[in-house]
Amino acid sequence: MSNQTMTVVGGGLVGAAIAYGALRAGMRVRVLDQGDTAFRASRGNFGLVWVSSKGGKMPRYASWSRDALKLWPNLQKELVDLTDVDAGLEQPGGFWLGFNDADVRARADLLERIDREVGGIPFKMMAPSELRQYLPGIGPAVVGGSYCPLDGHANPLMLLRGLHAALRHRGAEVITGVDVAEIRHHRDNGSFEAVAKDGQNWKSDRIVLAAGLGNAGLASQVGLHAPIASTRGQVLITERLKPFLDYPTNKCRQTREGSVQIGSTSEDVGLDDGTTTDKIEVLARRAVETFPALARARLVRAWGALRPLTPDGYPIYQESASCPGAFLATSHSGVTLAAAHCYVVGPWMAGLSQAPAGFEVFTGDRFLDPAASFSHDH
Amino acid sequence: MTIEPLFTVPHAPTNASVTIMFEGSPLRVPAGITVAAALLVGGVREFRSSVVGGVPRAPYCMMGVCFECLVEIDGVPARQSCLIPVREGMVVTRQCGAAHLDEFSFGEEL
User: Fold this and answer.
1) What is the pLDDT of residue A196?
2) Among the partner residues A137, A240, A296, nearest to B98 by beta-carbon distance
3) DSSP letters for A78-137
4) Which of A1, A165, A254, A346 would you call most buried, defined as having the most Cβ atoms within 10 angstroms of its Cβ?
5) What pLDDT score does A37 carry?
6) Burial profile A70-102: b = 16 or more Cβ within 10 angstroms, e = fewer
7) Residue from the list B99, B102, B110 with its beta carbon closest to the beta carbon of A239
8) Which residue in the set B51, B102, B106 is minimally distant from A258, CB to CB?
9) B45-65 residue pLDDT tens
10) What's the complex ipTM?
11) Chain B residues close to A296, C-beta within 8 Å
């Protein structure tokens, strides 16, 4: 085991995966996790394990997501073997379903371009008659769709629980109820100190900021740039139903337990993670147009969650130039990328492996260019 | 564990009653109470089987929160029997596992 200690600020899916990856590579790891006051995007996640259409403006993100999906079965098995927690990974391929021809054509162009630029992200466009062979329940509003054999889904809550169980099992120090307000860098010996609002503090040789929305205020203290804003997603869930949906889709998925999760909105509403009747209606209407039988299903819950998003929607992974040993990791795809965060990012940020090839594109410095403008798909 | 109900329904002679069908057998119950209360008073102890384990379940909260009292009522599966008043001629069966969308029948177009 390394003599060095790494502190990870943030115990959500991103922080827990990186922490566990560093731990299993031999690092001493401490996780500082906020309490129930955290917005906790990990608990509002839709649960897709998805590459299709990702990285249209950043090919490295597409290949990163593609490779993350290939690593996922290892993580699934490792968590079950170590902790008995089943994160519920299923990778039967997934469908995107379109309601008009223009969207379907744009989708075909986008997927063709990504596969050409990146490689290894196959897809098939399908007319409704072919879609029905896989999804017998689709309604007449669906005029076309795409299938990507790599896509799948998992249970985000069980994944988070499994990662935390694995951290504890292997001896990580996981401290909850901590509101980290300040990061100090001691230049004499290169060490770091995380200071909580109540004055508690923890020293370490390395520090990883994986605090979701909280990164925005912490990163600048160690010379990193994290312009992160929130986009709200509202999600609905039905009562448990007998299995009728064998594949996850972009509009809804049936969980292994039988409930149908229906998503999701994208709203700029600041730090409000509530729900609204008008958006619930939009989501329900869209789900029923996609699968008419859902008109008869009962909804049992709706919730809102805040995606921590950069201006271009892509992640930031970066080591600080001015405070070496301090790292930033922020992504709203904590489920899709979980295994890559664990097996690749964790050892890198622990100093036990090189930075992954081509990761320069993920620095937060890209947002400092005054001439650049950004947009994201959320 | 006992699942004897902790409440009783008064059977004053003036109280009206209705007859419902449960699993094919008539059950004469006080009017104006919920299906869950009526079934409990009528001696029913197993309302549904759980979705995951298939084990028998009975009402727990009696106020619309726990979803343990689900039954099929007049062909509509997975209804919360603690929220629905009894009605003459109502046909009630146990809810076995999860509801099947294809079996839903509401008698009228939604």
Assistant:
1) 96
2) A240
3) HHHHHH------B-S-EEEEESSHHHHHHHHHHHHHHHHHH-S---EEE-HHHHHHH-TT
4) A346
5) 78
6) ebbeebbebbeeebebbbbbbbebbbbbbeeee
7) B99
8) B51
9) 999 999 888 999 999 999 999
10) 0.73
11) 101, 104, 106, 110
Of A216, A234, A355, the residue nearest A284 (C-alpha): A234
Question: Would residue A76 be called left, alpha or beta, if left means φ above 0 and alpha means ψ between -120 and 50 degrees?
Answer: alpha
pLDDT at A88 over 50: yes
DSSP A155: -
Confidence of residue A375 (pLDDT cuts 50, 70, 90): confident
Tokens representing residue A342 in the block: 């664990």
Cα angle A325, A328, A333 (rounded to 5 degrees) comes to 145
Q: Which residue has the higher pLDDT, A375 or A184?
A: A184
Determine the angle formed by the axes of helices A59-83 and A156-169, rounding to 10 degrees: 60
Q: Is A43 helix (H, G, I), strand (E, B) or coil?
A: helix
Size of interface A-B (CB pairs under 8 A): 37
Chain A residues in contact with B106 (beta carbon < 8 A) = 296
Report the alpha-carbon angle A74-A79-A85, nearest 5: 135
Residue A250 to residues A98, A310, B2, B20, Cα–Cα distance (Å): 10, 22, 46, 44
Q: How far apart are CA A10 and CA A209, in angstroms?
A: 7
**Which residue of chain B has the CA closest to A293?**
B101
**Calpha distance A331→A156 (Å, rounded):** 15
Please give the Cα distance from A272 to A188 (Å, whole number).
42
pLDDT in the model for residue B109: 37
Contact between residue A251 and residue A287 where contact means Cβ atoms under 8 Å apart: yes
Query: Which pLDDT value is given to residue A371?
Result: 85
Q: Do B47 and B3 contact (CB within 8 A), yes or no?
A: no
Contacts (Cβ under 8 Å, ≥6 apart) of A363:
A316, A317, A318
C-beta atoms of B101 and A293 within 8 A = yes
Among residues of chain A, what percentage have pLDDT more than 90?
92
Structure pTM?
Answer: 0.91
Chain B residues touching A297 at Cβ < 8 A = 99, 101
Chain A residues with at least one Cβ partner in B under 8 Å: 137, 239-242, 244, 257-258, 293-298, 300
pLDDT in tens, A165-210: 999 999 999 999 999 999 999 999 999 999 999 999 999 999 999 9
For residue A340, pLDDT beyond 80: yes
Interface touch B104/A296, C-beta < 8 Å? yes
